[in-house]
């Protein structure tokens, strides 16, 4: 008898999931890979990755621990973390801005009425760098922003050597940024973000 025709004769118990371990509790495994918005409880893990990624390059971090908590309290929906087996391996933190270009105030403020998402920081854990995770996370983040009714464009500032990376992600250079941090100068970049209504019609957001 072919295997498929034999299935109706199997007892229901044989079609169920494998039996639970002794004690009646199922074993829960963490997803291999997960993207989700961050919350204040993730701040310490975020800062650990950021500190290692930026201190050696620029001597400072874009966001300090209290600033990370500040933004993850005010606008967690503008963050995105990449978790592998429950461990944070990469993240982006953003906030809203209400002017055409970034200014020094944009480093610390969240403007709820703004339509520009200021991307403060993207960082990848040192153990998984050079694997393309930064560009994948940015692509996922931009898709996430397209489902938010407030977001019309994304802005960021970066050092000149990072301009080619962000151009590959679809950003366009706007020229020198007004913001300076110590002796560091930055290039300001922009990416257009589609409106919520468009994405709802076309991608089920």
Automatic annotation (TrEMBL):
All copies of domain N-acetyltransferase, residue ranges: 33-194
Keyword Methyltransferase annotated: no
Catalytic activity: a 2-arylethylamine + acetyl-CoA = an N-acetyl-2-arylethylamine + CoA + H(+)
Annotated GO biological process: circadian rhythm; melatonin biosynthetic process; response to light stimulus
InterPro entries: Acyl_CoA_acyltransferase, GNAT_dom, SNAT-like
Similarity comment text for this entry: Belongs to the acetyltransferase family. AANAT subfamily.
Protein name stated in the entry: Serotonin N-acetyltransferase
Protein encoded by which gene: Aanat
């Amino acid at each position: 008898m072919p295997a498929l025709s034999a299935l109706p004769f199997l007892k229901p118990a044989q079609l169920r999931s494998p039996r639970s371990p002794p004690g009646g509790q199922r074993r829960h495994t963490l997803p291999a890979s997960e993207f989700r918005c961050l919350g204040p409880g993730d701040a310490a893990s975020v800062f650990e990755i950021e500190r290692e990624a930026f201190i050696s390059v620029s001597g400072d971090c874009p966001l300090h621990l209290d600033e990370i908590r500040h933004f993850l309290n005010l606008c967690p929906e503008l963050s995105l973390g990449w978790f592998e087996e429950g461990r944070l391996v990469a993240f982006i933190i953003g906030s809203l801005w209400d002017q055409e270009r970034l200014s020094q105030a944009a480093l610390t403020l969240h403007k709820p009425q703004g339509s520009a998402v200021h991307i403060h920081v993207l960082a990848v854990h040192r153990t998984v760098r050079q694997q393309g995770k930064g560009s994948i996370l940015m692509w996922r983040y931009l898709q996430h922003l397209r489902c938010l009714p407030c977001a019309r464009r994304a802005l960021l500032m970066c050092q000149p050597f990072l301009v080619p990376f962000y151009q590959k992600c679809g950003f366009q250079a706007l020229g020198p940024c007004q913001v300076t941090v110590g002796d560091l100068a930055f290039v300001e970049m922009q990416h257009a973000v589609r409106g919520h209504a468009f994405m709802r019609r076309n991608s089920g957001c």
